[in-house]
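Predict the holo structure. Ligand: zinc ion.
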Amino acid sequence: MCSPDVTATVYEQLARRRLGRRALVTAGLVTAATAGMVGAVGSPRRAVAHPAGTVWDLTHVVDEHFPVWPGSRRFAMRTVADNKNNDTGSLGSLLPQSIFYVNELSYDEHTGTHVDAPAHADPDGITVERIPVENLTAPLVVIDIAARAASDHDALLSTADIDQWERLHGRIPERAFVALHSGWQSRLSEPGAFTNQDATGVQHTPGFAREAVERLVHERSVVGIGTDTLSIDAGRDTSYSAHLAALGSGIYAVEVLADLHAVPASGATVFVGAPTHAGGSGGPARVLAFSS
Ligand SMILES: [Zn+2]
């Protein structure tokens, strides 16, 4: 058994080689006890061995530097009570002494790894707290277009990509959640590369083709779709055809997913911890994948 120090060092070496957490779990190097040691803002944080299988965290860590949709407010956190420095802050009148640590958060709903509820793009769509819980757990399908997106930043997940996935893995199961893996996560460390705007402000980022969304919704009955970029639409698609096709059909989306390179293309189950603020258009979510 590795000591925590040894485990963390090996993890960092492996992470630098981009082997991902799945390899670490396979190698027995990441455990529930040590996984929390290796987090960093913006980076995926952990896959852990579980008595019944493996759990992957598909959620990014966010701070004020995390990329947001151009023009949107960035994440912000303000400490209102600090029990390390004996500062009760604005809670001073409520607390006899500084026992607690409390922050105030501010962010737009579409910040970090987050859900788009149907209402985000459909005035008649349901809001985030009304997404049925049975739709928030689903078979996870990961369609990988990272190789193409590396050279074509405007790459679209097409119906041909769905065909190719089904040739390899069989028909997409009913009521699945289909995630687009574009490899965009690796661009988080490079300022400006995640939004990838050109001189005119147009973003060049991969997304779903409208026809692919329509097939997933109408012929495969998916409950949701997701992506590792800021939008299920390609950045240059200012008609937002994927949003309209998906959310307009009543399914939800999850954007800015983490670690899609590490989860199996088929066979895992995703759990989307959608927020429950009444009337919300979406919001930050904890997203986990599990495989036995
Ligand atoms: Zn969104």
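DSSP finds six helices and 14 strands in the chain. The radius of gyration is 20 Å.
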